[in-house]
Amino acid sequence: MSDLxxxxxxxxxxxxxxxxxxxxxxxxxxxxxxxxxxQPTLAASVAEAVAAVxxxxxxxxxxxxxxxxxxxxxxxxxxxxxxxxxxxxxxTGYGAIATAVAAVxxGAVDYLAKPAxxxxxxxxxxxxxxxxxxxxxxxxxxxxxxxxHIQRVYELCGHNxxxxxxxxxxxxxxxxxxxxxxxxx
Length: 185
Hints:
Layout: H1 3-9, E1 15-19, H2 23-35, E2 39-43, H3 46-55, E3 60-64, E4 66-67, E5 70-71, H4 72-82, E6 87-92, H5 97-106, E7 110-113, H6 118-126, H7 142-156, H8 161-168, H9 172-180
Parallel strand pairs: 1-2, 1-3, 3-6, 6-7
Antiparallel strand pairs: 4-5
Helix pairs in contact: 3-4, 7-8
Keywords: Phosphoprotein
Pfam families: HTH_8 (PF02954), Response_reg (PF00072)
GO molecular function: sequence-specific DNA binding
């Protein structure tokens, strides 16, 4: 049993809310955190998450920043009103300083870029109030971060190469070559 799993076992309340509109990520992260001892509730939207918080305020939460029906910050505020001692970690595919600052001001204890490793999420959730979470053990390379960003914009543009290239200020053929390659490590 790892130190992190032992720490979870010592918690008096293991309730956890996982909110993300990406079904695969939500289920995978929920299962990973459940295997480490949490009791997750999964939500696919802001409305589902707010209803879950009102029904049973969780001790921990992992929330996506941007969803189709709203913003994860709305859920942070709902959690803070229902349970001020809850520990919230924000996940996002958009690594912007302004949104990180807004998340922390709203009450999140940490802000992680997708795709986040379950152990990184767990470390952030369990970090003491007076210490900053440790940096990830295997951070993504700059090439991987760039590739993830391009993939996210490509998805947001409905897999339209020309629109994605326009938004990224990139030549269409260059973008096509990047999309044809495998993800860097």
